Amino acid sequence: MNARMGLIIFAIGACLLNSGCKGGMELNQLHIVHTVGIDAGRNNGIKLTAEISLLSSSGQQPKGMQERTFYLSGEGSSLFEAARLMRTKSDRSLLWGHATVVVFNKAVAEQGIGKHIMALRRLREFRNSTLIYVTEDKASDVLEATMPNATITSQALRGLSEGGENTALTEEKTLIDVYDHLINEDTDIHVPAVQLLEDPSAKKKKLLKTIGIYAFDKDRLVGLMKSKETKGFYRAMGSLSGSVETIPCGPNQMIAFENTSSNSRVKIGLDADGNPKVHIEINADLNLASVQCETREVTLSSIEEWEKELNKSISDAVERFIAFSQKKNSDLLGIKERMHRKYPKHWKKVKDKWNEIYPRTTFSVEVHSRIDHTNFTT
């Protein structure tokens, strides 16, 4: 019995001795990074900028993160070197694991985003859920933008990404999403675009705005899809909900509809010459939101007419996206992967010529719109 009690006491003591923060660091030894900006540096290098929250304590009760941030930057031949050289300007170690957003400058992305995504993954401190953005402005300037009710830029950018369901202009694109597409090569990648705007209430301040999606050919940025193309892309992907569709009903007058659900089916086949042909079928459910034309009554015949107009409007947006995608040779729908899966033997023959085949691929679009909840009564 005594031997057993001795073993129990020894085990408890060992656990207590091996627990704790051995090898760890106290909060007052760290700078917590929340947002990262990546710009082109001198001599073909990289400039890395970090937005860091100020931490302090007051009396016996810790106050923690304050409503202020500061910025550190470093330049090097690679992300790793730039991050290490930032330590020469910091009185504390930098904790990268809390970074929730990485913003790339467009010029850097045009040269190839792949090596930088791989570097972020190798560091192993960045979370898979870290959001990725691209901006035409300096990434370091985006980090210094101000937004109402957001004291940290990453908070503002995460909030903007969550608004994509209502705007169909952005989405939450994470580090692991981009990494997976680069590794698997199933589709070309796309990354949300963010832009700096002047705050009309204070000219020295800058606001942030989502403006669409940047498309890539492999890992190189090739173009910006604006509102029409971006909405067409989400329609073709079957991932659009909550945004607005409009059709004209008179001079400077519109009828507005709210998207409630949308799904798509992408079918691939081969023509007589072995060239791919793609058919996209879209089903869209919408609610009638507003009718500006007082002379237009909500009747069964007018609803049927509006559905036909919506079919054309949605089809036009999808076709604009397809035209952009083929012009930029950016296979965002993963047509090559669909072809590989359905026609594996044929794919082996044509995969080396895919960059020539995709721009010539034949697409057709079929849309079925349905208007619900019109408050129409008979």
Automatic annotation (TrEMBL):
<dbReference type="Pfam" id="PF05504">
    <property type="entry name" value="Spore_GerAC"/>
</dbReference>
<dbReference type="InterPro" id="IPR008844">
    <property type="entry name" value="Spore_GerAC-like"/>
</dbReference>
<keyword id="KW-0472">Membrane</keyword>
<comment type="similarity">
    <text>Belongs to the GerABKC lipoprotein family.</text>
</comment>
<keyword id="KW-0564">Palmitate</keyword>
<keyword id="KW-0732">Signal</keyword>
<feature type="domain" description="Spore germination protein N-terminal">
    <location>
        <begin position="25"/>
        <end position="195"/>
    </location>
</feature>
<dbReference type="InterPro" id="IPR038501">
    <property type="entry name" value="Spore_GerAC_C_sf"/>
</dbReference>
<dbReference type="GO" id="GO:0016020">
    <property type="term" value="C:membrane"/>
</dbReference>
<protein>
    <submittedName>
        <fullName>Ger(X)C family spore germination protein</fullName>
    </submittedName>
</protein>
<keyword id="KW-0309">Germination</keyword>
<dbReference type="GO" id="GO:0009847">
    <property type="term" value="P:spore germination"/>
</dbReference>
<dbReference type="Pfam" id="PF25198">
    <property type="entry name" value="Spore_GerAC_N"/>
</dbReference>
<feature type="domain" description="Spore germination GerAC-like C-terminal">
    <location>
        <begin position="212"/>
        <end position="374"/>
    </location>
</feature>
<keyword id="KW-0449">Lipoprotein</keyword>
<dbReference type="InterPro" id="IPR057336">
    <property type="entry name" value="GerAC_N"/>
</dbReference>
<dbReference type="InterPro" id="IPR046953">
    <property type="entry name" value="Spore_GerAC-like_C"/>
</dbReference>
